[in-house]
Write a structure and sequence with these properties.
mainly alpha, 404 residues, 16 helices, Amino acid/polyamine transporter I
């Protein structure tokens, strides 16, 4: 067991990245607004996205290459498309996760309720940690954060269910009109944007560099499955917290970061008691901090690798340059575009959803290509699930575009 735990890393980084805005914000809001009515969407999108996320570590372990290397071999146009899509989303994704972290920090420390100050401070701290510590520091931090949050959230939702005296209907619903935008955003970032499969493959390579021995396929898939199914379980738990505590009360979550953070912490303390306020607040902040630092690490890592592949003659690692670009762009948005944050986040989440079929198709194409050793190609069952997943993701994306 000790050996298995030491092999965990990229999968928990995946979980640490996923259990952020999609869980703390959107799953909780889904429960508060619809009860268990969107449980079908949460389960289906996790189920149908599973193979495409799994193909990240599967491809990397089998070939010793990242998904970006694979995209390049499929055709330079695919890699260029990835580059421009990533440019279009990385700043808004980073801003979205950091602003939630800032709201929680303002609640925990109470020094200031100015979210711009907190956002800039968190961005600078994360940048400094990554500049000095890189992957090894990231790996150690996130393991503990995911463990703490999982334990407290499962306990909280269990107590909330016992305290709830009004049975919640399990009737599933399909939102219409304005609520449809929320459904698309909810599924777009649940459990995470599809391009995180690229990040996972890059983290797998870094894990092998840090380890005395390379991960085997079995170890890597075990690591991935632990991280992936933890995100699903916690997604259900956060939906349950929102449903048990807020559904039918007439109370709605605020769009303001500081107010939302206070409401989020109240979900825990109303079930576990005020005595654990500080513990829960710190756990929630640690969770969003882990999401903030993993996203701040991943996009520069991906962009640096992309430039390296597109322009091999440069022979230079641009990770730190892209780290500064992302940090600087995020601070710019906080300073000048904070009133438009709601719009920016909706654009990012919707874009993540409608581009999901693109990444799913590329990942599926890669693991079936001649780049992949025959013995590591997906099983027949996984191939069938992949085809169904492509149909599901494409149908929803096209349906959304048609009703715009």
């Amino acid at each position: 067991m000790k050996n298995k735990l030491s092999k965990l890393g990229p999968g928990l980084l995946f979980a640490g990245t996923a259990i952020g805005v999609s869980h703390l914000v959107q799953s909780t809001r889904a429960g508060a607004d619809f009860g268990w009515g969107l449980l079908w969407a949460l389960i289906l999108v996790n189920f149908f996205k599973y193979p495409f996320f799994q193909y990240g570590p599967r491809f990397t372990i089998a070939t010793k290459k990242s998904l970006l290397d694979g995209y390049m071999e499929l055709g330079k146009g695919y890699l260029r498309a990835y580059f421009f899509l990533n440019i279009g989303t990385m700043f808004t994704i980073q801003t979205a996760v950091t602003i939630v972290s800032a709201g929680l920090a303002s609640q925990v420390f109470g020094i200031s309720d100015n979210l711009v100050y907190w956002s800039v401070a968190i961005t600078l701290i994360c940048t400094l940690i990554l500049w000095l510590g890189k992957y090894a520091t990231l790996d150690r931090i996130v393991k503990w954060v995911v463990l703490i949050l999982t334990a407290t959230t499962v306990i909280a939702v269990g107590l909330a269910s016992f305290k709830n005296i009004t049975p919640l209907p399990l009737t599933q619903i399909f939102p219409k009109e304005t609520s449809l935008i929320f459904l698309i955003a909810f599924m777009g970032w649940m459990p995470a944007p599809m391009d995180i499969s690229v990040w996972h493959s890059l983290w797998t390579i870094e894990k092998n560099k840090e380890s005395a021995s390379n991960l085997t396929m079995k170890e890597s898939l075990f690591d991935f499955n632990v991280g992936y199914w933890v995100t699903l379980i916690l997604g259900v738990c956060f939906m349950g917290l929102g449903a048990f505590v807020m559904f039918g009360t007439g109370t709605e979550f605020s769009d303001k970061g500081g107010v939302f953070a206070a409401q989020l912490i109240e979900l825990y303390t109303s079930t576990l008691g005020n005595g654990v306020y500080l513990i829960i607040a710190i756990a929630a902040l640690a969770t969003m901090f882990s999401t903030t630092i993993t996203t701040l690490d991943a996009s520069p890592r991906a962009m640096s690798k992309t430039i390296e592949l597109l322009y091999p003659k440069r022979n230079k690692n641009d990770y730190k340059m892209w780290l500064l670009i992302l940090a600087g762009g995020t601070v710019f948005i906080f300073t000048f575009l904070l009133p438009e944050m709601g719009l920016l986040i909706r654009i990012a989440t919707v874009l993540s959803f409608i581009t999901a079929p693109f990444y799913a198709f590329l990942n599926f194409k890669l693991v079936l290509s001649n780049q992949m050793p025959e013995e590591y190609k997906p099983s027949k069952r996984l191939k069938i699930l992949s085809v169904l997943g492509l149909v599901f993701l494409t149908s929803f994306a096209l349906g959304y575009l048609l009703i715009l």
